[in-house]
Specification:
Elements (H helix, E strand, L loop, with lengths): L7 H11 L4 E2 L1 E6 L5 E6 L3 E5 L2 E8 L5 H6 L2 E6 L5 H8 L12 E3 L1 E3 L5 E13 L2 E13 L5 E4 L2 E4 L7 E2 L4
Antiparallel strand pairs: 1-11, 2-3, 2-6, 4-5, 5-10, 6-9, 7-8, 9-10, 11-12, 12-13
Length: 172
Amino acid sequence: MSATCKNDEQKRRLRKALGRFPTGVAIVTAISDDNRPVGMTINSLTSISLAPALLAWSIDRGAASYEVFTNADRFTVTVLSDQQAELAMRFATRGADKFEGLEFDRRDAPVIPDACARFQCDSWRSIPLGDHTMLVGKIIDYDHSALPPLVFLGGQFQPAESGLPANTLAAA
């Protein structure tokens, strides 16, 4: 097995192996230079530091919103609850009107309501890594609820507590 995926079959196999690690599901949002909200579903969120309070997530360089996020002064990460799989799918769909009919708080970057946690961040660092860029944010405000989180495992969204699939993504 090569350390670099050279064809679609190798990428598929690696994605399937990585899919055995359960991750949380979040939506990251920002405001574009022309003052429109942008957002995407992510599952690459990680805590970096408590002092200063830093978190990081990664964006594919081919993402439609890549330039918006890499140039944004601020972004918000909203960790989704186990009842928000449909919202996760909407924000994962390229070309979808992601904010249509969605009431959200617009604190510099849209905050998705009824979620597990929210982290409002100033952009702190941008680090190119392979075909992605890691964006590090300095947390300037945050809150959380007691709602159970949405989890992604084996190509499916799952409620964290029941282990039953809430929605299925296309096969990885």
